[in-house]
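Exam prep: given the inputs below (a chain plus zinc ion), describe the expected output before reading on.
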Amino acid sequence: MVKGIVVRPGLAGASFDDIEEESSNGRVLVKTLYTGVCGTDREIVAGKLSMTRAERGSRLVLGHEALGKVVDPGNSSFSKDDIVVPMVRRPGGCANCAAGRQDYCTDGDFTEAGIRGKDGFMRESFYEEERFLVKAGTGEAGIEKVLAEPMKNVMKIRESIFGVIGRGLWDSVKGKGAWIFGTGTEGLLIGSVMSSLGMNVMLVNRHGLPEIQQALAASIGAEFFNSSSGNWASGEKKVPMDMVVDAAGAPSIMLDAVRNIRHTGVIVLFGTGGTGMEGKLLGDTIISLVDKNLTVIGCEDGAREHYEQAVDFISENGAKYRLGKLVTGIFQPEDTTVLSAKQQGEVKSVIKW
Ligand SMILES: [Zn+2]
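Solution:
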């Protein structure tokens, strides 16, 4: 038996419980070091995420952001004590899934660890196939590497941006302005990557920047704009709005972006926190999209290469951008309260196993 955090899909609550141990089948045995807690976990624990389903029976092991250490490499090419990040999404049967791009799955027939149809990583240890583990070092692991899973989304955003900027005849992103809506973990990770590309970064939210985020904004060299001020012109004097990456999901942000972004601008939609919110799509919004030759990209998840790029980025830039500071709280697995509510001053809460 190992201990882990289990939920019953569709029902509220989470418990720290015994989990029956799996058989190895030649797979890699990984000891969990850290698991990150995000909004998706909390929606599952609140019983509100309708896509949630168990792998077998009625229980699902929670957790999709993880960092672990190889205990037994099984039949793999890993070595004992390798540090690894497990991938979340597992391929279904479509052509993109077969090509290793389950992040672009066309029929929805995939599973996601800790979310739908596959047990997650909030447990003392787990067995995993080699192809779903990404090496993140050997020996000691810096806690900032637990950010590799949320960071892999940013690497796909980067790939998507480079896939479309030629349309607007951009020769480079260097020197351009990137406005990042949302100042949580994803917003700050996006800001650090855009900054590393030589972009001028503006972090945006509707309520002001808490102290801890101010320090992180300073370390990535970002400006801050409070959108509730409505004074867009003053913000754009500091950082031109050539690109918008939305990590929030409120429809009003999309409309603000279309209204204020420069010609040939690129808008990347990543956040999904806007369920139930309304925004008014006017003919004028469409005219702006057309008239300014804007490009709007929806972007989610990432492939193996994005996990690898995320690990590399954190290794190379983690200290420079102080990414470890994003971890604002470390919790014991027995203390499941962290799964119910956002903590005071939280950027990223992490469970230590
Ligand atoms: Zn597929």
